[in-house]
Amino acid sequence: MPVASNLSNCFVELNGFLVLDKPEGRSSAFIVNRCKKILGAGRAGHLGTLDPFATGLLILAINAGTKIIPYVSVKQKCYEFEIKFGEKTDTGDKTGKVVAASYTIPKYSEVEAVLPLFLGEIQQKPHPFSAIKINGRRAYQIARNGLDPNIESRPVTVFDLHIVSQMDDNIFRLEATVSPGTYVRSLSEDIAASLQTVGHVVSLRRVRDGKFCIDDAVTIDRLEEKKENVGDVLVPLEDVLDDIPVYFASDREASELAFGRSVICGTDVGSRDGICLVSSEGGELWIADVKTDRVLAPRRLLVCARYAKGR
User: Fold this and answer.
1) Phi and psi dihedrals of 53, rounded to 5?
2) 59 and 30 in a common domain
3) What b/e sequence results for 174-205 when a residue is b if at least 16 CB atoms lie within 10 Å of its CB, and e otherwise?
4) Catalytic site residue 169?
5) Which whole number is the average pLDDT over 5-25?
6) pLDDT, tens digit (0-9, with 9 covering 90-100), for 172-209
7) Do residues 55 and 22 make contact, with C-beta atoms less than 8 angstroms apart?
8) Which domain covers residue 255, as residue numbers?
């Protein structure tokens, strides 16, 4: 069983979520693999990718954390980003080549005036160089071959959008709070188009992802240098799923659940979307289906008592 590399005399598996501040220039997949090695984790994943040029919050699921990714509810994400007006790139960001230019550079008041047009539910077409899958292929793989991925528009929600500062005559820093699946590169290009010009993103930083905030993030450098106690920085599974009601099972109920059997509970059980968390005194943690107010059926064992460290 894998053991975190900076722990000694410990034969338990660390489970939880790592709130990481991703550096620029590395892919999300690279960061996941690097953290797996640092933590000695057998399994790792993330709650939402970031482009290599982007920085900020990358939430990593460690070991048993990977089992609950489908149950994590994220309704809002917040990004700080800079738009450079006057140039459009093929990728929509600074890593691409310039494919169009315009001498029209909007003023602060003009940018501010169009932002309300993008609030609320809007139709957005994901960027051709996004990672969205089209018939099993990533859109950017199709676009790099000079083809149009032919991505359809879809509804997304922009909860807040405002100017943070003007960095230069043609560069503005904005902050957007959006629903998952919103593409900031597409939003930036659409803002530029509404101002009769073109533009692209020159910096992008995720500062909030659901309940996670950038102020609580650690860097991969600090993890590599062993300046952080991994057990202390991992967010327990229950804390990530704190919007799902928890039922505390007795030893008898836990024994039944361990054999895949439904149990009749002594008290009413709450649920979210028909599921709840079941926690036992011995350290096990399940996702269970709530059949009725008092009947639970185990759906998935998240943490086994023998490896409950980092719950």
Assistant:
1) -80, -15
2) yes
3) bbbbbeeebbbbbbbbbbbebbebbbbbbbbb
4) no
5) 70
6) 999 999 999 899 999 999 999 999 999 999 999 999 99
7) yes
8) 244-307
Residue 1 lies in a domain: no
Give residue for tokens 């003023």.
107
The yes-or-no verdict on residue 114 having pLDDT over 80 is yes
* Contact call for residues 74 and 209 (beta carbons, < 8 A): yes
CB 44 within 8 A of CB 234: no
Question: Which two structure tokens, joined as six digits, stand for 34?
Answer: 């690097």
Q: Decide: helix, strand or coil at residue 75.
A: coil
Contact 112, 248 (CB under 8 A): no
The residue among 26, 1, 6, 2 whose CA lies nearest residue 231 is 6
Mean pLDDT of 108-131: 90
User: Rounded CA gap, 212 and 20, in Å?
Assistant: 10
What's 151's DSSP letter?
P
Can you read off the two tokens belonging to residue 132? 């969205």
Query: The pTM is what?
Result: 0.85
Same-domain check for residues 54 and 178: no
| Tens digit of each residue's pLDDT (9 = 90 or more) over 147-157 | 676 777 889 99
Q: CA 205, CA 80: separation in Å to the nearest integer? A: 5
Which structure tokens are listed for 245?
A: 């009601």
Domain count, the chain: 3
- Which of 21, 51, 90, 190 is labelled catalytic? 51
